[in-house]
Specification:
alpha/beta; TIM Barrel; 7-stranded mixed β-sheet; 3 domains; single chain; M1 Pyruvate Kinase, Domain 3
Length: about 500
């Protein structure tokens, strides 16, 4: 048998041993965080710390060396970081012809137990799912959904019903859940309920001025608009050239305006309109527009506002959220924490749920801001103090906050970190939106739906064709699960491989 270059093997051995040592040191350094998590998440939290230690380093050259030796290149270590390193070390020991076997190391997860624990946590939070499917289907329900439609959704593949508490009221939500439960009894299909609290979600409140349309002229001139705390008091605003007669836009959370500074970006309606703050005055900020889809956008009340550069000094739970939690504690299976920004936001929700005797409810972290993404490991470790935890990849807001060019890599990193923590991920925002609204999908949407098979759940919005959309995504998921398991390609027989 021909052995590889001993020097290559020894270099690889030293590098992998260093990775394992860093993983163990990282666990000891943050052991106080591990001690606080729920016992059911102890293995996942420990594995997450090991994974983070590895991902703090650039191991691309090591990966190439390992692949050249015919070994695992550590590209699938999310659910079993330490076990993966130990397996590679054992193989390298054999290649180096070391006489003594390496003593087995302790690992919080194995190749089998990591995936099994993730599925166990997904079942606890999202339900058992359907036979032959690893990914559950969540549907945002309109308040007026009737029992017949709910039965068709359940029979078509809906596993989780989402209620957006930014719309409607407790009476309407209660009636909807009652119809859903009856539909479940009649079909014999169980369905979990997620209630999303609105959170501190800034929106356009009122519009002032002659026209609510913002247009980028061909001359290259930049239009401006005022973002104000109070539209009625905005008549005397002055901010230099281009400010006179500018559109006046009110903000539903007036305190946000106080946090704006020159140079901060402001986006409207998932990035359909964007600009930069030029002038800040008492109670208002002048925004110069540099982006308008198709050149012209009509500004409407109720549409969302994003401030990716602004540290917002507003509480994570609004008075409305606290009222809604009273209802959620009695009727839902899990609560979605919208616009989470820091671990203290998670702690506040956990405390409020405990005060209502609802600590058993699942918590879903909605990652939709730059601070949330940047603090995701800490958010996870804090949320994992609760028994049932999940993460929603709210890709619409993330694209606006972090830039569309970064969205692909950000959603990948979110999936990796969730798998490392053994926490189920929910793939969300405008999945199969065209099919849902018009009855015809786009090519890009189908590819996006196929990517959702790597998450434990995919969320669909409400739409006129939502029943057909559920059936479509279930078909896509069944096909993809024969080809893909997380990042690993599964090599079932291909019919196109035959030449005869």
């Amino acid at each position: 048998m021909a052995y590889p270059d001993p020097q290559v093997v020894e270099h690889a051995l030293a590098a992998v041993e260093a990775l394992r040592a860093s993983a163990s040191e990282h666990e000891q350094r943050y052991r106080h965080l591990l001690e606080a998590v729920h016992p059911g998440h102890r293995a996942g939290a420990t594995n997450l710390l090991h994974y983070l230690a590895v991902r703090q380093q650039d191991i691309r050259e090591l990966q190439r060396r390992l692949a050249s030796l015919g070994l695992s290149s550590l590209g699938r270590l999310e659910s079993c970081a330490l076990a993966s390193l130990d397996a590679v070390l054992g193989a390298l020991d054999a290649l180096a012809r070391r006489p003594e076997a390496r003593p087995p190391g302790e690992s919080p997860t194995t190749f089998a137990s990591g995936g099994a624990l993730l599925e166990e946590h997904a079942r606890a939070l999202l339900g058992a799912g359907r036979q032959g499917l690893q990914t559950r289907v969540m549907v945002t329900l309109p308040g007026e959904a009737r029992k017949g439609e709910l039965k068709r959704l359940l029979e078509g593949g809906m596993d989780v019903a989402r209620i957006n508490c930014a719309k409607g009221d407790a009476d309407a939500w209660g009636e909807l859940i009652e119809r859903l439960r009856k539909a479940g009894q009649e079909t014999g299909i169980a369905c979990k309920v997620l209630c999303d609290i609105a959170g501190p979600n800034p929106r356009v409140s009122k519009i002032g001025g002659d026209s609510a349309r913002v247009t980028l002229p061909a001359s290259g001139e930049r239009p401006r608009f005022w973002l104000c705390k109070d539209v009625k008091r905005a008549r005397s605003l002055s901010g230099g050239a281009g400010a006179e007669g500018a559109l006046v836009v009110g903000c539903s959370i007036p305190e946000v305006v106080d946090d704006l500074r020159p140079g901060h970006r402001v986006f409207y309606d998932d990035g359909r309109l964007g600009g930069t703050v030029k002038v800040v005055t008492e109670g208002a900020a002048l925004v110069e527009v540099d982006l308008a889809r198709q050149g012209s956008v009509k500004v409407k009340p109720g549409k969302g506002l994003n401030f990716p550069d602004t540290e917002l000094g507003i509480p994570s739970l609004t008075p409305k959220d606290l009222e809604d939690l009273d209802f959620i504690a009695r009727h839902a299976d899990m609560v979605g924490l919208s616009f989470v920004r820091s671990p203290s936001d998670v702690e506040r929700l956990q405390a409020e749920l405990s005060a209502r005797g609802a600590a058993h409810l699942g918590i879903v972290l909605k990652i939709e801001t730059t601070p949330a993404f940047e603090q995701l490991p800490r958010l996870l470790l804090t949320a994992m103090r609760s028994e049932k935890v999940g993460v929603m990849l709210a890709r619409g807001d993330m694209a606006v906050e972090m830039g569309f060019v970064r969205l692909a890599e950000v959603q990948e990193e979110l999936l990796w970190l969730c798998e490392a923590a053994l926490v189920p991920a929910i793939w969300a925002t405008q999945v199969l939106e065209s099919l849902n609204k018009t009855g015809v999908p786009t090519r890009g949407e189908v590819t996006d739906a196929a990517m959702s098979s790597r998450a434990e759940c995919v969320m669909l919005n409400q739409g006129e064709n939502v029943v057909a959309t559920v059936a479509f995504v279930v078909d896509v998921l069944k096909r993809m699960h024969e080809h893909q398991d997380k990042k690993r390609a599964l090599m079932r027989p291909l019919s196109v491989s035959r030449l005869d």
